[in-house]
Amino acid sequence: MKRWSFSNVILVLGLLFIYLPMVLLVIYSFNASRLVTVWGGWSLKWYAGLLDNSQLMGAVMRSLEVATYTAIAAVALGTMAAFVLTRVPVFRGRTLFGGLVTAPLVMPEVITGLSLLLLFVAMAQLIGWPAQRGIVTIWIAHTTFCSAYVAVVVMARLRELDLSIEEAAMDLGARPWKVFFLITMPMIAPSLAAGGMLSFALSLDDLVLASFVSGPGSTTLPMEIFSAVRLGVKPEINAVASLILLVVSLATFIAWYTTRRAEKRRVRAMRQAMDDGGDRNWRPAIDNTVAAPPSAHS
Known about the structure:
This protein has about 300 residues and is mostly helical. The protein has helices at about 5-30, 45-50, 55-85, 95-105, 110-125, 135-160, 165-170, 175-185, 190-205, 210-215, 220-230, 235-290.
């Protein structure tokens, strides 16, 4: 029997530390007892009770809405920032721009949330917008925070691309915008998907920023859970957390499966193109050899 190495033991312990609490959460979401620490048998009543808990379900839908808008905006802004930093090597203020793009990665969320709160208050006094803090201000705060992550992910992908493909397309007459949408975008699509999923998860999980920039009637799911657990963990919270885990797991699997199939199709198409190109290159030589008259020595 093969002995376990130290690295394998650490790997198993790390996975258990990460995923065992999630498994326990899912199990206790089927607990019939109202007391979370006391097992009272299997039951689905807490899942059915979610339909009657309008406050909790409203927070869930609000968080999903903000996370979706944040993922779309963060991917757009992060991609543009990454494209500028990788494809425009020299321009005035490049170092400052790069620092501003990546600053949210190292800045404490408390500082970011407080600064955005002061900004929104000052804007409301000067121009009258926003009249009150809510979904829009949470979306702006989350987009500011998540765009930095998307920019870093997309920059890593853009630095690995072969520029000769884009240059060849422009030599053949393609406009820069057409090259970007038809050649560059498909090649960086996996990084865009990764950045979008990361932004969605970060926005759905955020508590600190939302606490600063939210207002009455704009409570997100983390804020709702944080305020509820002060009085003890309710079984409904276990149920909604289990549903979120299920949805995120399915979305991750679908994204992985789709990306894998697309990568296989791309590799198959490249091999077929190489094979067809090789056949076309060799076919004239073969035809010349067959059609050539026999030599005098034959």
